[in-house]
Write a sequence for this structure.
C-alpha cells in the first residue's frame, strides 16, 4: 500500500539486480504489485455485501457450489470487478514516475513519459503535445465504453424480490 514514489530507489536497485531495467516486464511487475492491493480491497468489499442467501437458494434449486458462484455471485459481483478493472487500468496507464525511473530507451517508455520528453527547455511544440495527449486519452475512453454496460447490467442481475 506504499506509494510507488516512496520506493523508487529500492525498486530501481531490485530490478537492476534482476537485470530487468529498461524492460516492459519491469513496468508490468511493478504496476501489478502496486495495484493488486487496491483491486483486492475493492473486490473483497463488494463481494462481502452480496447476501449468502442467494448462493444458498441457488444450491437448494440444484446448482453446485461452482454453479452458484458462476450463475449468481459472479454476475452480482461484476460491478465491483469492473470498478477494480477501471481504477487499476487507469492507474497503470497514467503511471509516470515508475516509467521514468525504470526505462531509459524511448521505444520502451510509456506514453506519459514520451509526452514529457516532448517538452524542451527553451521551446515547446504544443501541437505535438496536444496530439499525443489526445492519443493517450483514447484507450481509457474505449475501456470505459466497453466495460460500462457490465456495471449497469450487474446492478440489477439476480436481485431478490
Amino acid at each position: 500500500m506504499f506509494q510507488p514514489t516512496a520506493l523508487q530507489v529500492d525498486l530501481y536497485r531490485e530490478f537492476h539486480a534482476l537485470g530487468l531495467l529498461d524492460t516492459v516486464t519491469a513496468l508490468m511487475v511493478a504496476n501489478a504489485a502496486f495495484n493488486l492491493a487496491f483491486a483486492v480491497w475493492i473486490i473483497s468489499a463488494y463481494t462481502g455485501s452480496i447476501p449468502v442467501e442467494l448462493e444458498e437458494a441457488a444450491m437448494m434449486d440444484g446448482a453446485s457450489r461452482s454453479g452458484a458462484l458462476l450463475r449468481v455471485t459472479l454476475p452480482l459481483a461484476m460491478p465491483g470487478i469492473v470498478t477494480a478493472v477501471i481504477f487499476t487500468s487507469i492507474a497503470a496507464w497514467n503511471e509516470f514516475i515508475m516509467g521514468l525511473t525504470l526505462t531509459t530507451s524511448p521505444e520502451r517508455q510509456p506514453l506519459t513519459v514520451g509526452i514529457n520528453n516532448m517538452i524542451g527547455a527553451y521551446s515547446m511544440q504544443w501541437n505535438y503535445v496536444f496530439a499525443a495527449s489526445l492519443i493517450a486519452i483514447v484507450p481509457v475512453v474505449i475501456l470505459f465504453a466497453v466495460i460500462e454496460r457490465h456495471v449497469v447490467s450487474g446492478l440489477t442481475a439476480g436481485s431478490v424480490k
